[in-house]
UniProtKB/TrEMBL annotation:
It comes from the Bacteria. Keywords: Hydrolase, Magnesium, Manganese, Metal-binding. Signal peptide: none annotated. Its cofactor is Mn(2+); Mg(2+). The keyword Manganese applies. PANTHER family: ACYL-COENZYME A DIPHOSPHATASE NUDT19, TESTOSTERONE-REGULATED PROTEIN RP2. Residues 26-230 form the Nudix hydrolase domain. Transmembrane segments: none annotated. Gene3D superfamilies: Nucleoside Triphosphate Pyrophosphohydrolase (3.90.79.10). CDD domains: NUDIX_AcylCoAdiphos_Nudt19. This is Nudix hydrolase domain-containing protein.
Length: 270
């Protein structure tokens, strides 16, 4: 149990938490999506590097995702695939929270990549989202002047929850002052669509084989947070995208914790 050494500020907060001098910040529900595509040497994943100015995970390579918008949980949308109740059973969440998680997964993916897991009907998917009108809607979703349900309804689109595969559940450690209760999904890049470097919270994007991303992290060339590192390790075991999407996963919450090892505070996941 070696874990990751904590910087001085987080180590001090960990000791304050253990001593009861401070209370942990509540974790906000969030969703993230591992977008996959077939590559010549196996599956590739889409990663964004968060800007160095971001308050959370600055400079880290991450998957698209973000917090649940309260409107994601309480506005009905046209829906194809597993129901919110089905997703709730998988992620051990109430139906309303599960609805919000799936909507956030699809919405945030569109906001951060231009990829939209929705279509005109339950068996179709939007072919292209690169026009000016799509861009206007994407920006309106980002600034929250447009609700996701209204966006889908206005365009006559059905959310395709069947294009999502549940993958993992990570909760930000209590030592952090920005915390997220994040469900991880996997999805294949829809045929005809393409990711776009749309800026915003990211300053660089890349398609990478999971094993390559891990090797770059080992060399210190990129920074990965523990959930991204762990999921890339899991994904590197699969030979093709179909195998990833067919995987049976038992979703168990994982929350790294701070422990003192030989006088040094470290973050461990066991």
């Amino acid at each position: 149990m070696t874990g990751f050494p904590l910087p001085a500020e987080l180590a001090a907060r960990a000791r304050d938490l253990q001593a009861g001098r401070v209370e942990p910040v509540p974790a906000r529900d969030a969703a993230t999506v591992v977008i996959l595509r077939p590559g010549a040497l196996g599956p590739e994943v889409y990663l964004l590097r968060r800007k160095a100015t971001m308050a959370f995970a600055a400079g880290a390579y991450v998957y698209p995702g973000g917090s649940v918008d309260p409107r994601d949980t309480d506005q009905a949308v046209a829906w194809a695939g597993p129901s919110p109740a089905d997703w709730g059973a998988v992620f051990h969440a109430g139906e309303q929270v599960a609805r919000g998680l799936v909507c956030a997964a699809v919405r945030e993916t569109f906001e951060e990549t231009g990829v939209l897991l929705a279509g005109p009907g339950p068996g179709s998917v939007v072919a292209d989202t690169t026009g000016d009108d799509w861009e206007a809607d994407r920006l309106a979703l980002i600034d929250r002047s447009l609700a996701f349900a209204d966006f889908l309804a206005r365009r006559g689109l059905v959310l395709r929850s069947d294009l999502l595969t549940p993958w993992a559940h990570w909760i930000t450690p209590e030592i952090e002052q920005r915390r997220f209760d994040t469900r991880f999904f996997a999805a294949v890049l829809p045929e005809g669509q393409r990711t776009r470097d749309v800026g915003g919270e990211a300053d660089q994007v890349v398609w990478q084989r999971p094993a390559e991303a891990l090797e770059l992290a080992h060399k210190g060339e990129i920074f990965l947070m523990p959930p991204t590192y762990a999921t890339l390790g899991e994904l590197s075991a699969y030979a093709d995208v179909a195998d990833v999407l067919a995987a049976t996963r038992e979703i168990v919450p994982i929350m790294p914790r701070a422990v003192e090892i030989e006088g040094e505070m470290r973050l461990v996941t066991t």
